[in-house]
């Protein structure tokens, strides 16, 4: 589902990722491990085409993304569910509206939006908060809303950039459970984290990065 | 597709409600622009009206050779009436010329000189579209070449001055109007850029979620159009009060009022266009 073949993507200060090669299967969750500055976020940004790739190829669901034209990037991003450490929820909208946003972008009908948003909010157990604003709910709840926003469009690939970064251990565990459950629908999940104790008991595959290079 | 369009239109309305202060500032900017335009247009209409009234008095006076008799002069008078641009004429025989002399000088010319020495002549009115100093000079030259015409006179100096004054005034109004339009567009786009700047985080999130530039732009553009509409409605309300005042003043001074049929769509179209151009410019610069 996600194929990295000798990928190098660098910034102007020569930081970035170098010669990365890995493969993630459909329905698999893989953790990107490493300290701050190791290149975890760069891997994710390269996948959702926020930074250009200098060398190698990234293939997502059989599509070589380096061949995607700039004006087509938004359409490619619609097929990916992305979760951020700072949630990136829109504070002037309700929980329901935040979760519905990707579906509006995709041009889904109001009726389908209504059904899908209710379904996903029920699945993550936050249906009661649908009329709340993100500023009125806890950090853990905000992150679950961000996950709901990623899941609502049934993506084949889910990218999570330090989704537990600001959360306590119990809430973090719940977040990883939610992401893990998304793989049951066939999605490939790639989660960046520096919290090894969180992922150790799960016995899942992880890719370790240091200074942009793959260690294991 | 319809659902998406409805969502974007709704977003435009919602953005207007959310950012009340910038919206009010933009609407007031557009309102001031439209007021200046409307008052300038009102001034132009009046100036044009007065100028047309004044130009009605533009005429060419012709004096015939003193040796010609009345019938010969009438023939020449009729041939002048056929010249392109001459609308109508008034034949002046010796008796009428004497009466005109008396009106101006309060003396009977026959009593002064012993006989009536005044030449026969004619006053010729020029068609409205020919009431211009260059065209009138050409017509006067044509008349002067006719055999039996002794002298042609028209107030070329005064006409030249009035035409020049009107031309300068219109040029000045055009330059000032253009400058106001540009300043207004810049102000609207800058106000919208302030709104956009405060929402840069949201815009970045929308982009990461797969929103196209068009999807991001459209609510801002709708917001700009609505701000323009707000400014236009405000200016129409003020102009309505101005209209009532002018109607009241009609009893004291002559004014040419702008017809509401022209003013209402004009203000709405210009207001919404200013909002559209300003917001498009603002968001396009930001998304570049």
Features:
heterodimer; A: 216 residues; alpha/beta; four-stranded antiparallel sheet; 25% strand; globular; B: 288 residues; alpha+beta; Alpha-Beta Plaits; 4 strands
If you had to describe this structure to a student in words, what would you say it looks like?
The complex is a heterodimer of chains A (216) and B (288). Chain A has 216 residues and is α/β, with parallel strands linked by helices. Chain A contains seven helices and ten strands. In chain A, the strands form two sheets. Chain A has a six-stranded mixed beta sheet with strand order 6-7-8-3-9-10, sandwiched between helices. Chain A has a four-stranded antiparallel beta sheet with strand order 2-1-4-5, covered by helices on one side. In chain A, a hairpin with a 2-residue loop joins β9 and β10. In chain A, α3 packs across α4, α3 packs parallel to α5 and α5 packs parallel to α6. The radius of gyration of chain A is 17 Å and the shape is globular. The mean pLDDT of chain A is 89. With 288 residues, chain B is α+β, with helices and mostly antiparallel strands. Chain B has two domains: 178 residues, no CATH class; 96 residues, Alpha-Beta Plaits (2-Layer Sandwich). Chain B has ten helices and four strands, in the order ααβαβααβαβαααα. Chain B is elongated, with a radius of gyration of 31 Å. Chain B starts with a helix and ends with a helix. The mean pLDDT of chain B is 84. Classes of the chains: A alpha/beta (216), B alpha+beta (288). At the A-B interface, α2, β6 and α3 of A face α1 and α8 of B.
């Amino acid at each position: 589902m996600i194929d990295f073949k000798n990928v190098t993507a660098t910034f102007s200060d020569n930081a970035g990722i170098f010669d990365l090669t890995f493969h993630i299967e459909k329905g698999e969750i893989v953790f990107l491990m490493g300290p701050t500055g190791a290149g975890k976020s760069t891997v994710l940004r390269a996948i959702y085409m926020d930074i250009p790739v200098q060398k190698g190829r990234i293939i997502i669901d059989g599509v070589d993304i380096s061949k995607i034209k700039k004006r087509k990037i938004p359409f490619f991003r619609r097929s990916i569910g992305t979760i951020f450490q700072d949630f990136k929820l829109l504070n002037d909208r309700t929980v329901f509206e935040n979760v519905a946003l990707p579906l509006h972008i995709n041009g889904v009908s109001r009726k389908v939006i209504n059904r899908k948003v209710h379904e996903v909010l029920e699945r993550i157990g936050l249906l009661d908060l649908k009329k709340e604003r993100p500023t009125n709910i806890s950090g853990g709840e905000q992150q679950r809303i961000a996950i709901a926003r990623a899941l609502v469009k049934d993506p084949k690939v889910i990218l999570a950039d330090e989704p537990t970064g600001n959360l306590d251990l119990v809430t973090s565990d719940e977040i990883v459970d939610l992401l893990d459950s998304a793989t049951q629908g066939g999605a490939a999940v790639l989660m960046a984290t520096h919290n090894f104790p969180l992922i150790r008991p799960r016995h899942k595959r992880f890719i370790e990065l240091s200074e942009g290079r793959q260690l294991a | 597709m319809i659902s998406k369009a409805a969502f974007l239109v709704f977003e435009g309305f919602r953005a207007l409600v959310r950012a009340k202060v910038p919206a009010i500032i933009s609407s007031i900017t557009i309102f001031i622009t439209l007021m200046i335009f409307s008052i300038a247009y009102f001034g132009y209409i009046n100036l044009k009206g007065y100028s047309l009234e004044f130009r009605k008095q533009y005429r060419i006076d012709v004096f015939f050779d003193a040796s010609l008799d009345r019938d010969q002069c009438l023939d020449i008078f009729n041939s002048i009436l056929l010249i392109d641009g001459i609308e109508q004429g008034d034949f002046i025989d010796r008796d009428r010329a004497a009466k005109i002399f008396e009106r101006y000088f309060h003396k009977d010319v026959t009593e002064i000189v012993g006989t009536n020495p005044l030449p026969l002549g004619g006053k010729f009115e020029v068609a409205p579209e020919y009431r211009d100093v260059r065209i009138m000079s050409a017509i006067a030259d044509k008349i002067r070449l006719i055999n039996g015409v002794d002298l042609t006179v028209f107030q070329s100096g005064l006409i030249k001055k009035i035409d020049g004054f009107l031309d300068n005034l219109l040029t000045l109004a055009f330059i000032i109007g253009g400058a106001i339009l540009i300043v207004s567009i810049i102000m609207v786009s800058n106000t919208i850029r302030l709104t956009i700047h405060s929402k840069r985080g949201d815009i970045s999130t929308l982009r990461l979620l797969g929103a196209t530039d068009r999807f991001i732009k459209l609510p801002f553009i709708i917001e700009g159009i609505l701000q323009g509409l707000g400014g236009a409605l405000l200016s129409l309300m003020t102009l309505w009060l101005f209209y009532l005042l002018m109607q009241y003043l009609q009893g004291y001074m002559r004014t040419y009022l702008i017809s509401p049929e022209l003013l209402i769509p004009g203000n709405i179209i210009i207001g919404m266009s200013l909002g559209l151009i300003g917001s498009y410019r603002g968001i396009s610069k930001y998304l570049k």
